[in-house]
Amino acid sequence: MSIFLFIFFAAVYLVIINTMTNSLVVQKEMTEEKIPNVFTTINVLIMILLVSTYVRLLVI
Predict the structure, then answer these.
(1) d(CA 31, CA 55)
(2) Which stretches are transmembrane (predicted)?
(3) Torsion of CA 24, 31, 47, 6, to 10 degrees
(4) The predicted structure's pLDDT at residue 57
(5) How many CA atoms, within 13 angstroms, populate the side-chain half-sphere of residue 49?
(6) Residue 39, exposed/middle/buried by CB under 10 A (0-12, 13-18, 19+)?
């Protein structure tokens, strides 16, 4: 049960981060070439954070 709860909150967190990233991209008026790199970098870093958090919860 807890794994489903973690996955649900991780997905919600990822959507919120992507929404904030989109706001940043629009506010800074970034070029079309840089936008995919920004989203990819942020999503990879957030996924690393979420996976490490999940592994830490498994250990405890």
Answers:
(1) 37
(2) 6-26, 38-59
(3) 40
(4) 86
(5) 11
(6) middle
SS3 state of residue 52: helix
Of all residues in the chain, what percent are helix, strand and coil, respectively (each to 5)?
A: 85, 0, 15
pLDDT along the chain (60 residues), means of 10: 89 97 96 96 96 89
The candidate with the shortest Cα–Cα distance to 13, out of 47, 52, 37, 58, is 47
- Cα end-to-end span (Å), the chain: 16
Place of tokens 């709860």: 5
Q: What is the pTM of this model?
A: 0.84
